[in-house]
Amino acid sequence: MKAPSILLFAILLASCASKKRIANPGDYTAFLRQGVLKSKLTTTAAELSFWETRLKDHGTNYVDILQAASAHLRLFALTGKVDHLVLGDSLLKFGSGMLRNSDPEILFALSQNAITQHRFIDAAEYNKAAFGAEGDRYINRLLEFDAGMELGNYKMATHSLGLLEDKKAFDYLIRRAKLEDHNGNLDKAIELMQQAFEKVKSRSKNLYCWTLSNLADMYGHAGRVKESYEAYIKVLQKDTSYIYALKGIAWIAYSHDKNSAEAKKILHYILSQTNMPDIYLALAEIEGWEGNNGEKTGYIRRFLDEVQKPGYGDMYNKYLISVFTEELADPAKALEIAGKEIKHRATPETYDWLAWAYFKNGENNKAMTLATNYVYKKTFEPNALFHTALVFAANGKKQEAKALLRECLESSFELGPVTTMIIKEKLALL
């Protein structure tokens, strides 16, 4: 995104001067310590070494292969190093092949891993194969929902969810929350996620942290920033190594508090502990907001250098489209990526990316057709609303554009200060 004008930047600073900050370093500084993941990394690396030694000494054994795969995938979750994801996936495939792809548990694991890699068609196919191998019907329906939502097959996903008998089970509640969020019922989604959290808060540390951090995200989307912050802090108090919660706190420090120095401190800490490529883009936005364009460009380049490695595949296409349209002025490249993405999954969000790429290529009519038919009133994602508003404005639909931009202002925290200023500038001109 372009930086806001100097005048609007000054207005923004003045308007924020009296706003009470939420992120208090006294609450989380103790969690910013080096080696927070060391114990988990050491244990998991030792497990991987053990299974690799067994494979070397005792020959190929599918049990050892699957254990090694599991260790690689856990190391990916800890380190963010994509090589572990690729190796874990390859070992799962090899182990499945040894059993003639007849073990449904391995096929379920391959399906879940394919979702992580944004290979959603493959995820659906693995799940279908698991069904054919007489896999657990409950897991099958859960993964059918997960893949269906990613592929834009919402009717099928809703049907699969409806087949689950226990409507109070954790697995049902978190998926129903996702469906309600997709349908624009954020308050209902939050209510369901709160119910899910109550189910697990005293049973499992991992599920406690996962559920509460997702609930914190939802609070932020709803503008309930203080509740979001408090939830992230509770996550860290439960597990000091749950770095994802720090990412949420960093965004609060930047987007709500306008405390960019504190946000950058947290983001740099995250990068010192694990590899999250999108952190480079968060740092780039903050540097751009501060007017440090050289530093901004450097972070964008670091992001590109990382995510264009072969192992990432299509995992960061959304971000790449944004970078090529907004930062690098290469809309043709963005259009190429968006066209590939729409073949993989035709959702309102991916149609938005395609429409936006056409818009940035100067093809307003194509952008308008896509936005009208596949995006408008079909998604409530703030960036999609913002893009659609600009497409509508360029095609003469000023009243609709104004309405969408005003709706975007309700998501100012989620969109961030830079986009919020652009929205205000555009509204003033319409």
Descriptive tags:
Serine Threonine Protein Phosphatase 5, Tetratricopeptide repeat, single chain, disordered N terminus, 430 residues
SSE pattern, N- to C-terminal: HHHHHHHHHHHHHHHHHHHHHHHHH
On the 0 to 100 scale, the average pLDDT is 94
The rounded distance between the terminal residues' Cα atoms is: 19 Å
**Can you tell me the CATH class of the domain at 314-430?**
Mainly Alpha
User: Which fold name is given in CATH as the topology of the domain at 314-430?
Assistant: Serine Threonine Protein Phosphatase 5, Tetratricopeptide repeat
Strand content: under 5%
Total number of helical segments? Answer: 25
CATH superfamily of the domain at 314-430: Tetratricopeptide repeat domain
Number of strand segments:
0
CATH architecture name of the domain at 314-430: Alpha Horseshoe
Gyration radius (Cα, Å) is 22 Å
Low-confidence stretches: 1-18
Please summarize the sheet with the most strands.
none
Helix-strand makeup class: mainly alpha
